[in-house]
Amino acid sequence: MPYINGLGVYAPEKIIDNAYLEKLVETSDEWITSRTGIKRRRMAADDEITSDLACKASLAALKDCGRSVNDITHVFVSSASPDALCPVTACVLIRKLGIKGVMAFDCNAACSGFINALQLANYTAMADPNAVILVVAAEIMTRKLDWTDRTTCVLFGDGAGAVIVSRNLPQNPQGFCAEIDDILIDTDGEFSELISIHAGGSRQRYSVGDPVDRNYFISMNGREVFKQAVRSMVEAARSILERNRLSLEDISLVIPHQANDRIIQAVGDRLDVPVDKLFSNVSEYGNTSSASVTLALHDARNADLMPKGGRVLLTTFGGGFIWTAALLNIL
Ligand code: UT7
């Protein structure tokens, strides 16, 4: 099976805490903390765009595994907040990395985008023994927010994470290395309206000079999404364990999508995950959409929560709906 070899992240320097949001909308640190667990989130600088975050995370991942940009054969960028509809962020990224001639394109599966891109890399590496695939999840969600809507603007943040996938064993034994044991992806389009950015594509016609209204920003039925997120991540986690004939005892760490600490705790409770095996860093970053599990993997690794020989279970949920589970065997 292919390996993830090399992990790097980038979180913008600017920190927005809950006190700052209290000045923008009718909210409170107490409400945000008790309902979401979020204390602060990162915000990209005015001159930073998504490909800049992607580039910094990619260089960190390459450094982590001791590879050069010239080794890369494929680049898959996951983003729900790309630089633009066109040009493709992956192509801007390869220009910034100084490479050409590789297969490079964007994929959007909302908050589940990283695991979807990872599965694509997994298949690519299975088909091509020489493939060295850069998988990047990069998000500037703060530019997709209506800053007058308190039900969404307190939830999201910016960040990026990258991994290198290949069939070769690590160049740098100190770098992050994990075998991709299994990936499960499930979808249901019936609920696509529950998280949406209505305008900006073909659905809402617009012309030069039209005002930018709230349809250009995220809207979400939080309560309904909450229920579906818990149900779907629990179901995906159970299914992937069952089809690999594993139980939670075989798992050293569970990393759910970092959207809301109450969702993370509810997933943990239903699966019966011991507190010390359930990872959460949503307090520090908020919901960074598809970058969330990469930032979590990075922080979990720094906290020594992913011992060699241990198995990590990732599970994600997001707009579409698209939900996933992945099993990584840490080497
Ligand atoms: O990444 C994609 C997946 N996204 C998610 O997983 C998000 C899922 N949903 C959630 O995390 C939660 O549903 C929220 C955090 C969005 C909301 O929490 P909730 O406990 O479901 O609150 P609610 O939507 O039921 O709202 C409760 C009250 C409402 O007031 P009323 O109608 O009871 O008077 C809201 O207007 O809280 C109010 N409210 C706020 N109050 C202060 C909503 N947002 C805020 C706010 N500050 N920021």
Structural description of this entry:
- This protein has 331 residues and is α+β, with helices and mostly antiparallel strands.
- It has two domains: 3-177, Thiolase/Chalcone synthase (Peroxisomal Thiolase, Chain A, domain 1, 3-Layer(aba) Sandwich), CATH 3.40.47; 178-330, Thiolase/Chalcone synthase (Peroxisomal Thiolase, Chain A, domain 1, 3-Layer(aba) Sandwich).
- It has ten helices and 13 strands.
- It has helices at residues 18-24, 29-36, 50-65, 89-97, 113-127, 150-153, 222-243, 261-271, 282-285, 292-302, and strands at 3-10, 14-17, 40-43, 74-78, 103-107, 132-140, 158-166, 177-187, 195-196, 219-220, 253-256, 311-318, 322-330.
- A nine-stranded mixed beta sheet has the order 5-4-6-7-1-8-13-12-11, sandwiched between helices. A two-stranded antiparallel ribbon has the order 2-3.
- Strand 12 (311-318) and strand 13 form a beta hairpin.
- Helix 3 (50-65) crosses helix 4 (89-97) and helix 7 packs parallel to helix 8.
- Oxa(dethia)-CoA (UT7) binds at residues 27, 31-32, 35-36, 111, 150-151, 154, 195, 222-223, 225-226, 229, 259-260, 263, 287, 317-318.
